[in-house]
Amino acid sequence: MKKWFLAGVGLLSILVGCSEAGNEVEGFSHIHGLEYAHNEDAFYIATHHGLIKHTQGKWINVNNEKEQHDFMGFTIIDEDTMLSSGHPSHASDLEDPLGLMKSTDSGETWEPISLYTEVDFHLLHANKGDTNQIYAIDAYHSHFYHSEDGGYNWEQVETEGLPEPIGQTYSLTSHPQFSSHVLAGTEEGVYLSLDSGRTWEEMESESTATALESLNGETEELIGYFVGELEGLYYSTDFGQTWESLDFTLENDMISYISQNPDQENEIILGSMQEAIYHTNDLGDSWSKLAENGNINQ
């Protein structure tokens, strides 16, 4: 079995001091999540020191110092609602780890709603067809979790066939019409579950997906970034049964996050392990680099 030592890529980051909410920033530290907003032409980056919002060409610090958490497993549910996990800001009274947190004001303030002090979700995926169906992987204890009510209650799933340690799974996504169908990218390859993560079978052994993204709630379209026999960004119309190259490959880096603009289906952003952000508005025919090594390109 081929192994991919992804940690060897390294993380080049700019350590940015805390800044006031609403101020523009020139850089960021660690991309822990990257998603388009649902109510405006903007996207959010979950970082080591809070959320950053990109809108109208500006990069804005979202949080005050108390809310500048080390956000992990970040996802946007609807126009105002976000979910995340991670570790509290040094100015916060919250304990570590944060469990699952919820924001109902577009990321400005956060409140733990479940598994507080118990889990640190490094992967958090809400199904595009039914956002009450959420899958998560706890890096704290290396467990797989499933919620059917938007994250208020969870089942710790006993998995069979998903390579261990589970906490080192690289990517997760689920089928928009069949939420029990889940894909996972692991060091051993790509795996499929048809029963909400209980049992898994290997789909691809010579490549692994470092990022997976279901494109909408109405089709089986996927985008994934692969290393191995498949190399680079790929597109699927059948939930990963077959893949077509989008001719986008990085050297000495790899994509960790993919997000599609819900209002512009050809607009996609990518976030890399080495703190780069790439953007396309023509489904990959052309790309621009918005940030590199945590530095924002002007």
TrEMBL record:
NCBIfam families: glycosyl_F510_1955
Signal peptide segment: 1-21
Organism domain of life: Bacteria
PANTHER family: EXO-ALPHA-SIALIDASE, XYLOGLUCANASE (EUROFUNG)
Keywords for this protein: Repeat, Signal
Domain Sortilin N-terminal: from-to ranges: 190-293
Entries under InterPro entries matching the protein: Glycosyl_F510_1955-like (IPR054817), Sortilin_N (IPR031778), WD40/YVTN_repeat-like_dom_sf (IPR015943), Xyloglucanase_GH74 (IPR052025)
Record SUPFAM superfamilies: Oligoxyloglucan reducing end-specific cellobiohydrolase (SSF110296)
UniProt cross-references to Gene3D superfamilies, sorted A to Z: YVTN repeat-like/Quinoprotein amine dehydrogenase (2.130.10.10)
Protein's name in the database: Sortilin N-terminal domain-containing protein
Pfam families: Sortilin-Vps10
